[in-house]
Every structure is written in C-alpha cells, then in structure tokens.
TrEMBL record:
Domain Cytochrome b5 heme-binding: 50-126
Any Pfam family: Cyt-b5
Family annotation (InterPro entries): Cyt_B5-like_heme/steroid-bd, Cyt_B5-like_heme/steroid_sf, Cyt_B5_heme-BS, Cytochrome_b5
Example GO molecular function: metal ion binding
GO cellular component: membrane
Keywords from the UniProt entry: Heme, Iron, Metal-binding
UniProt-recorded name of the protein: Cytochrome b5 heme-binding domain-containing protein
SUPFAM superfamilies on file: Cytochrome b5-like heme/steroid binding domain
Keyword Metal-binding: yes
Length: 144
C-alpha cells in the first residue's frame, strides 16, 4: 500500500500533509513484519523494546505531578518537562493523560522540539489502539 493512498483527515486538517510539510518526515515501514514492535536505542546503542501502554493506563497520568501524553501512538512521560515547556505547563496539562497528536502536529514543532521529546519516550500504544502507526508498518512520520 502506498502511503499516498492512506488518508488521515480530521475535518479540514490533513495530518499526513501537515506532518510532511512541517517536519520533512517521510513514510517508513517495518519491512513487512506485521505486528513488529518499534525499538529505541539505549545510550549504549543497542535497541530496546518499547513498553506497550494502553490508553486507559495513560489516562491515570493526568496531573502536574504525573503527566503522560500520547503523540503519534507513542507514550511520553512529560512530568519533568512541564515547568520548562516554552508554551507553559498549562498547554501540556490540557492534554495530560490523553492523545495530544493533533495539538502537537498542528502547532508545527521544530526538529529540536522533537529531539527533546525523545528523552521522555516511555512506550507505545498497543496495535489495536493506534491511529497513526498501523500493524502493516505504514507510518505517518518519524521524529528525526
């Protein structure tokens, strides 16, 4: 399936086009491995499996002392970043415990912001709860 045939429209907001235009990201796959789990690199460079975290678990982390966000089906613990967020902590708290993808992509964060976000990556949603990254490996984009 070509990525161009994948449509991710929310009202008048086309996430695929917005994502490509803002970050220069391209679609990538997992080489056809259905259900493959994404990996992140540890400081030693060895890949590490991401923990699978369901949305109902993310929902419990919605306070100033415990703030988790979902962005493009990845789960981030942004608690430490709340007070230093350039837009203020209230912006993050508005989406604490839920999916913040539309807000994050819609604002057009820089590549630097995406690099900072990687520090807070703690897991990913299970396949059945993903919207932006599917089991066939099609992705809207990656954080570069």
């Amino acid at each position: 399936m070509e990525l161009s045939t994948l449509s991710l429209n929310f009202g008048s907001l086309n996430l695929l086009e917005l994502w490509k235009n803002r970050s220069g990201a391209t679609a990538t796959g997992n080489n056809g491995n259905v259900g493959a789990t994404d990996e992140k690199s540890t400081t030693s460079g060895a890949p590490e499996q991401l923990e699978i975290i369901a949305l109902d678990q993310v929902a419990w982390h919605d306070t100033l002392e415990d703030c988790w966000l979902v962005i493009c089906d990845y789960v981030y613990d942004c608690t430490e970043f709340l007070r230093s967020h350039p837009g203020g902590q209230d912006v993050l708290l508005e989406y604490a415990g839920r999916d913040a993808t539309l807000a994050f992509v819609g604002y057009g964060h820089s590549k630097g912001a995406k690099r900072i976000l990687k520090k807070y990556l703690i897991g990913e949603l299970p396949l059945e709860e993903r919207i932006f990254r599917t089991e066939n490996g099609i992705k809207v984009g990656d954080f570069d």
